Every structure is written in C-alpha cells, then in structure tokens.
C-alpha cells in the first residue's frame, strides 16, 4: 500500500488533487493511505514552496498545480 500525502493549506487545487488521487486509486483498484497535510511547517519540511504538493512513500513527486489524471495513474502503477 502506498502512503500518499497531499500538501496544501486547503485551497481548491489542493482539494481537487486529493479527490483526483482518491478517485484514480479507486478506479484502478489500488489501495492507498491518503493523508492531507495542511500545516505550513510540515509542508516546508518537504521543501515544497508551491502547493499542492504530493509526497509518495516519503518522496516529493509533484509541486504546484493539479496533476493530470495520467500522471496520477503513473504514480499508482
């Protein structure tokens, strides 16, 4: 199971990114542990300066803007 964190303070793009990852995982039948990180200190701890950011298994894979569905599918394998 992949641990996925969406980094962001609650903006619309952050919420869309969270929903997109959740929907894509369900569609692919992939089980994920999805977490929302909203604290600025924690977000900056990952070195992410523009949100939303996506961290998979401890590695930052995306920052700034909503990723497209194909990208998310690639992350989920």
* Helix/strand order, N-terminal first: EHEHEEH
**Cα-to-Cα separation, first versus last residue:** 11 Å
| CATH superfamily caption | Glutaredoxin
Query: If strands are numbered along the chain, what order do they take across the biggest sheet?
Result: 2-1-3-4
Based on CA atoms alone, the radius of gyration comes out at 11 Å
CATH architecture: 3-Layer(aba) Sandwich
Please indicate the count of domains: 1
Give the overall shape: globular
Number of helices: 3
> And the CATH topology?
Glutaredoxin
**How many β-strand runs?**
4
Q: If you had to describe this structure to a student in words, what would you say it looks like?
A:
The protein is of the alpha+beta class and 77 residues long. It has one domain: Glutaredoxin (3-Layer(aba) Sandwich). Helices cover 40% and strands 27% of the residues. It contains 3 helices and 4 strands. Strands 2-1-3-4 form a 4-stranded mixed β-sheet. α1 (12-28) crosses α3. The model has no long low-confidence stretch (mean pLDDT 96).
Question: What order do the helices and strands come in, and which of them pair?
Answer:
Blueprint: E1 2-7, H1 12-28, E2 32-37, H2 40-45, E3 53-56, E4 59-63, H3 69-76
Parallel strand pairs: 1-2
Antiparallel strand pairs: 1-3, 3-4
């Amino acid at each position: 199971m992949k641990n996925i964190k969406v980094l962001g303070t609650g903006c619309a793009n952050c919420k869309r990114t969270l929903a997109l990852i959740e929907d894509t995982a369900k569609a692919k039948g992939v089980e994920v542990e999805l977490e929302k990180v909203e604290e600025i200190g924690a977000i900056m701890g990952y070195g992410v300066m523009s949100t939303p950011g996506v961290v998979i298994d401890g590695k930052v894979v995306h920052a700034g803007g909503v990723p497209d569905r194909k990208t998310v599918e690639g992350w989920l394998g």
